[in-house]
Amino acid sequence: xxxxxxxxxxxxxxxxxxxxxxxxxxxxxxxxxxxxxxxxxxxxxxxxxxxxxxxxxxxxxxxxxxxxxxxxxxxxxxxxxx
Length: 82
What we know:
Blueprint: E1 9-10, H1 12-19, H2 23-32, E2 40-43, E3 46-50, H3 51-64, H4 70-78
Antiparallel strand pairs: 1-3, 2-3
Helix pairs in contact: 1-2
């Protein structure tokens, strides 16, 4: 029996597939602050997003009926979510 591993971190390509947008859109949202979760730069060429945070952000976006940007997301996280 082979175990299935769920990645803890997502690449821009993984995130794009999950959100149904292009990788280019992910990088645009990230650089402009339109993507709530901040990426973690593991090395010069490796950047990842925390899967659990992305899932929490997506749940909040659905609840609000819109995409939540980084500043608002950080405020929500500091306040303990919503």
